[in-house]
Write a structure and sequence with these properties.
Blueprint lengths: L2 H35 L6 E4 L4 E7 L3 E5 L5 E5 L3 E4 L9
Antiparallel strand pairs: 1-2, 1-5, 2-3, 3-4
């Protein structure tokens, strides 16, 4: 009989841990996956390093972006943090 409160308490802690730790992380990962799937040539993106660039080419695991100086940089899809508004011309 004394084990029932302990088991209930541990179960409660597991449920709270799930909703405070695991669920938000999964939600952010799903949002990022949707963001990467929505990438299109011409989108203005911000990388994890803080660089702004225009998407030039999308490969399986990477993206080629053009920065303001006209330089092309290849970054991983995981380093794309957000799409910055509608496409606009930043070069030339």
């Amino acid at each position: 009989m004394t084990w029932i409160p302990i088991v209930l308490f541990v179960g409660f802690l597991i449920i709270v841990w799930y909703f405070l730790m695991i669920r938000p992380i999964r939600h952010r990962e799903q949002q990022h996956d949707r963001l990467v799937l929505d990438l299109a040539k011409g989108d203005i993106v911000i990388t994890a390093g803080g660089m702004y660039g225009k998407v030039d080419q999308i490969d399986e695991g990477s993206v080629v972006i053009i920065v303001e100086s006209g330089t092309k940089i290849r970054v991983t899809k995981g380093s794309i943090l957000k799409i910055e508004g509608p496409p606009r011309e930043i070069i030339g």
